[in-house]
């Protein structure tokens, strides 16, 4: 008896939420062959360590990779230690600055720890693509470049748009799709996952595999997750992201602030809930958002933390402080005659990024302190500060410790 589920069952899981499959008939044939031979497919996903935070946008293809693992196939995770130095031009209207070797190595160390929250990295094949590109000679690179033409390269939408806008396209950017495609040759990928903006790069992998005498990979793209602003692609540079390393309270709070129109998209791409279940939940957008926030927090922090976070959120909505309040230390010498200017207290506790912002928040009535939730009369008002004082700005709550 095959170790793999029936092909139709596998396809139902694999294609749920997918944007495009190149090609679906080939995918079915690969799955059938895999089931007949008992040999798992090799499922590739590459990620460049361009920053410290892996965010929910990255998890869309990572969750699909996890589903392939659960179906019995082999996850091959490419850490782009070489491609990060080039910078992926996909979906960009300007050249992307490549990173230094030191930056890449530092970032790569944190990525696996975060990715392990989504897939089982102990059962995955993890390959830094510097493993083969550091061995490339000039002759190897010339041969690789000979597999495409400038005409085909500038057919891609992002380059076409930049040509029309008169924005520079640098030659090193043309290397990126070839390098990503060569990764597929090196690891003999059966399927490659990526976002919709990655389709060109994934298709290059098919071409290079054919040229190398391999059966071409299936290109399976996933929709791009819009960030918390509801408009732009989730990303670190835009600041509209939720990082996997963020505290449960931050994850929950950021999810609660997303526009209602994102709910259907986020449920489909970030949870395993059925269409029927989501439709039922959407009858009450506020409750749907709370359930979504709980689903996200639960996946990365567990059930106990999720329950406590939900209780704290509900309490805050009722002006009840949470049981566990983060503490912040304020030097005793900052206190004069048992008090401190409200502006200085807000800035010192980092409730606001600057004194200018602190003044605006006081004017807006967003800051209060103590058990009676006292609000300063104006920006020149002082706050009596004692050890254990609770200060609040919006949903941010801190307990002051003197020292």
Any overview of this molecule?
- The protein is built from 17 helices and 12 strands.
- By secondary structure, it is α/β, with parallel strands linked by helices.
- It folds into 3 domains: 216 residues, Rossmann fold (3-Layer(aba) Sandwich); 70 residues, no CATH class; 76 residues, Roll (Structural Genomics Hypothetical 15.5 Kd Protein In mrcA-pckA Intergenic Region, Chain A).
- Strands 1-6-5-2-3-4 form a 6-stranded mixed beta sheet, with helices on both faces. Strands 7-12-11-9 form a 4-stranded mixed beta sheet. A two-stranded antiparallel ribbon has the order 8-10.
- Helix 1 packs across helix 2 and helix 9 packs across helix 10.
- The termini are far apart.
- The model has no long low-confidence stretch (mean pLDDT 88).
- It comes from Gemmata palustris.
- One of its GO terms (molecular function) is tyrosine-tRNA ligase activity.
- Keywords: Aminoacyl-tRNA synthetase, ATP-binding, Ligase, Nucleotide-binding, Protein biosynthesis.
């Amino acid at each position: 008896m095959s170790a793999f589920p029936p092909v139709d069952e596998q396809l139902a899981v694999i294609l749920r939420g997918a944007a495009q499959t190149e090609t679906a008939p080939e995918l079915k044939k690969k799955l059938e062959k895999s089931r007949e031979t008992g040999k798992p497919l090799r499922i590739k996903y590459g990620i460049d360590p361009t920053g410290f935070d892996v965010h929910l946008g990255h998890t869309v293809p990572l969750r699909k990779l996890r589903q392939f693992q659960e179906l019995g196939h082999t996850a091959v995770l490419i850490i782009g230690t070489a491609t990060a130095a080039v910078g992926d031009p996909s979906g960009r209207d300007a050249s992307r600055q490549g990173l230094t070797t030191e930056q890449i190595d530092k970032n790569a160390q944190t990525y696996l720890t975060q990715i392990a929250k989504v897939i089982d990295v102990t059962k995955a094949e993890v390959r830094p693509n510097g493993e083969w590109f550091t061995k490339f000679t000039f002759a190897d690179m010339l041969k690789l470049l000979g597999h495409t033409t400038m005409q085909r390269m500038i057919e891609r939408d992002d380059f076409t748009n930049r040509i029309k806008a008169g924005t520079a396209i640098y030659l090193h950017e043309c290397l990126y799709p070839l390098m990503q495609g060569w990764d597929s040759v090196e690891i003999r990928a059966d399927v490659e996952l990526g976002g919709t903006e990655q389709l060109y790069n994934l298709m290059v992998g098919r071409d290079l595999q054919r040229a190398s005498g391999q059966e071409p990979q299936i290109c399976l793209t996933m929709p791009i997750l819009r960030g918390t602003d509801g408009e732009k692609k989730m990303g670190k540079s835009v600041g509209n992201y939720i990082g996997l390393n963020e505290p449960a309270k931050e994850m929950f709070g950021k999810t609660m602030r997303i526009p209602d129109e994102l709910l259907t998209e986020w449920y489909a791409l970030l949870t395993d809930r059925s269409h029927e279940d989501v439709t039922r939940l959407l009858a009450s957008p506020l409750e749907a958002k709370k359930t979504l926030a709980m689903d996200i927090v639960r996946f990365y922090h567990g059930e106990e933390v999720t329950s406590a976070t939900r209780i704290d959120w509900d309490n805050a909505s009722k002006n009840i402080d949470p049981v566990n309040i983060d503490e912040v230390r304020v030097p005793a010498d900052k206190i004069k005659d048992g008090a401190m200017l409200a502006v200085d207290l807000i800035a010192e506790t980092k409730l606001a990024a600057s004194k200018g912002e602190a003044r605006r928040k006081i004017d807006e009535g967003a800051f209060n302190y103590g058990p009676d939730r006292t609000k300063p009369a104006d920006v020149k008002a002082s706050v009596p500060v004692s050890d254990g004082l609770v200060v609040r700005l919006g949903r941010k709550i801190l307990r002051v410790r003197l020292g």
